[in-house]
Design brief:
Distance between the termini: 34 Å
Number of strands: 10
Length: 385
């Protein structure tokens, strides 16, 4: 007997964690975790969308780069053509220079011949010269041509032909120069336009990449916070499981006696005498809203019937307070607990341990305050026990 008392004493003074507080912390942590996970999902979607936008911009950049490469190839071809035209232009210029020299020599020879003919036949030569409005007209004078010898005719013909060649080559040189200038200007403008477009795309891509980096950083921080909250939640749930396990384990440690079944639909939550009846008048209340059952601190409290926990936590003068909603309008409540072993929303069965007795709130000694309510209004528990 002495040994049993020694083993029971530490358990009788055992201070269990407050399961109601744990339940509240679990709910708060779960709410924070849900919000964090929602933010993480949102950020993941934004990062994915930005990644798709970056990929799209990269495709556009690649397309512009390909166009630039195509234009550059065309420019290279035009550059080769330009080099060829420039060589041709240089040849034409050299040929034109030679033709000009030959032309000047022919004109000099023709002038000398005119002087000779003037000396041979002054009147006719002078007439031809005086009646001509210029050198070109002078060469075209039929009367003068008819008087020239075959040699003189060859000189005039050569001078006229060289003049035509010089004129044609000069025009061709101008055409080639204009053509080359137009080709180079067109391709250069197109290349510059594509390069500017690619530069704008790359700048936009860089800006999007910066935003994405910021979002990824926020996502990493959110994921870290989510992991931290999940760790907290796991720890709290482990503590809750330990408390509930300890509560369940204490059912056999304390002598709560056998489950006491009355004549009503409810079982007695604890096995002990009634120390205060229902609606007893007290100095601080006109009608005691339940019954007080005298038991020692730490006695397991059993659910009076199957139901769902609707209240579990501190509640003013009730101290640690639990209420269970049963079928229909009936609910039962348990006050002054030293520790609550259930959480709001939890389903319980008749006889399950839901907490331990104590003396929290407005209390002057260890006991269980037990209430029955119909649609929230207190009624005499003895009608159901």
């Amino acid at each position: 007997m002495a040994l049993g008392l020694i083993l029971a004493l530490p358990l009788a003074g055992l201070a269990l964690p407050d399961a109601a507080t744990l339940s509240t912390q679990i709910e708060q942590t779960q709410s924070q975790l849900n919000a964090t996970n929602s933010k993480k999902t949102e950020l993941s979607g934004e990062v994915k969308d930005l990644g798709s936008r970056i990929s799209g911009l990269q495709d556009e950049i690649n397309g512009l780069s390909q166009q630039e490469a195509s234009v550059q190839r065309r420019l290279d071809v035009r550059a080769a053509q330009l080099e060829k035209l420039r060589k041709e232009l240089e040849q034409l210029k050299r040929r034109l220079a030679k033709l000009t020299v030959r032309y000047e020599k022919a004109r000099t020879a023709l002038a000398d011949r005119l002087v000779e003919r003037y000396k041979e036949d002054p009147p006719d030569a002078v007439t031809v010269v005086l009646e001509s409005q210029g050198f070109n007209e002078f060469l075209e004078r039929t009367a003068f041509m008819e008087r020239l010898s075959d040699q003189d005719h060859d000189i005039v013909t050569r001078v006229s032909g060289l003049k035509d060649e010089v004129t044609a080559d000069t025009e061709r040189v101008g055409q080639i120069e204009n053509r080359v200038h137009g080709i180079v200007q067109e391709i250069t403008e197109q290349r510059d336009m594509l390069a500017a477009a690619r530069s704008r795309k790359e700048e936009a891509q860089g800006q999007v990449a910066d935003v994405r980096a910021g979002k990824k950083s926020a996502l990493a921080e959110t994921a870290k916070q989510s992991d931290h909250l999940q760790g907290q939640l796991d720890s709290l749930e482990a503590d809750q499981a330990a408390v509930q396990g300890q509560l369940s384990g204490t059912a056999g440690t304390y002598d709560a006696g056998p489950i006491r079944q009355g004549s009503g639909q409810l079982i007695w939550p604890v096995n002990g005498p009634i120390t205060s009846p229902f609606c007893e008048t007290r100095a601080w209340e006109a009608c005691h809203p339940g019954i007080d059952i005298g038991v020692s601190s730490g006695t397991p409290i059993r659910a009076a019937a199957d139901g769902r926990v609707i209240t579990a936590g501190p509640n003013g003068g009730y101290g640690n307070y639990t209420c269970i909603q049963h079928g229909g309008a009936l609910s039962t409540c348990y006050a002054h607990q030293s520790s609550i072993g259930v959480s709001v929303g939890q389903e319980v069965h008749q006889g399950d341990v839901i907490g331990l007795t104590g003396c929290t709130g407005l209390c002057f000694g260890d006991h269980l305050h037990f209430e029955t309510r119909i649609n929230g209004s207190v009624t005499d528990p003895m009608a159901y026990l």
